[in-house]
Specification:
- This protein is mainly alpha-helical.
- The protein has 8 helices and 4 strands; from the N terminus they run ββββαααααααα.
- The mean pLDDT is about 85.
Length: about 230
């Protein structure tokens, strides 16, 4: 029941409504009963401001996105979850493909059977790696944050991880411009740090516990796909 309520982006306090609409285009933002600040200032902000704050890892930007925009009670939640999963896997497959092309010298003389075997191995690594990643993450969440995250549903945590991995979209830029493969590892670090902030916002746990859960899940994924 509490998970269906909105949150103040400043302190995380639960609130029933974020604004009152008097007429189309005429709204009044509500204030938080706990910290007395405007509950969600991002309602009147441009999306670019939200994106910048997400890149800067500001917790209030993650609270706005995870609690006040992407609510499980929303009708589009299930569809968004599936679309995010597919996008996450496709970007991860492209990441693995780029790394593999850097490690091996692919040529036009590569046989069809070799290409099929490589693609099959690539897809297997991506699915197996991410399955172990999510499994390890959910397990680590229950172990490290059993008290704080006890009321959270697995779908909430899963969506938080998928959405906070938005840095993977920068891999699309590598399809247009050529970058060294080391950029991929920089993106991985940003994904790890973004996942950590998202988990901290969702579970309200200590940062050290969130780092431990995220780092262990990413470490298992790396060791599996290598």
């Amino acid at each position: 029941m509490d998970m269906d309520m909105y949150r103040c982006v400043e302190c995380g306090f639960r609130i029933k409504t974020l604004f009152v609409q008097y007429s189309p285009g005429n709204i009044r933002l509500m204030k938080c009963e706990n910290c007395k600040a405007v509950a969600d200032e991002y309602i009147e902000c441009n999306f670019l401001i939200l994106l910048i704050d997400l890149i800067l890892h500001k917790p209030k930007a993650y609270r706005h996105l995870l609690f006040n925009v992407l609510k499980q009670g929303a009708p589009h939640f299930e569809g968004l979850l599936w679309k995010s999963t597919v996008g996450f896997l496709l970007l991860d497959a492209y990441r693995s493909l780029v790394l593999k092309s850097c490690d091996e010298a692919w040529s036009s003389s590569t046989s069809l059977s070799s290409l099929v075997w490589t693609c099959r191995k690539l897809l297997t690594d991506v699915f197996l790696g991410n399955l172990l990643f999510l499994g390890t993450f959910l397990l680590a969440t229950k172990i490290f944050m059993s008290i704080s995250a006890g009321s959270l549903r697995n779908k909430d945590i899963l969506l938080a991880i998928l959405i906070s991995s938005y840095f993977k979209m920068f891999l699309i830029v590598m399809m247009v411009w050529e970058f060294p493969s080391s950029v991929i590892f920089i993106i991985d670090l940003f994904v790890l740090s973004s996942n950590t902030v998202a988990v901290k916002v969702m579970t309200e746990s200590a940062m050290s516990r969130c780092i431990g859960a995220c780092f262990s899940a990413h470490a298992v994924k790396i060791f599996t796909t290598q």
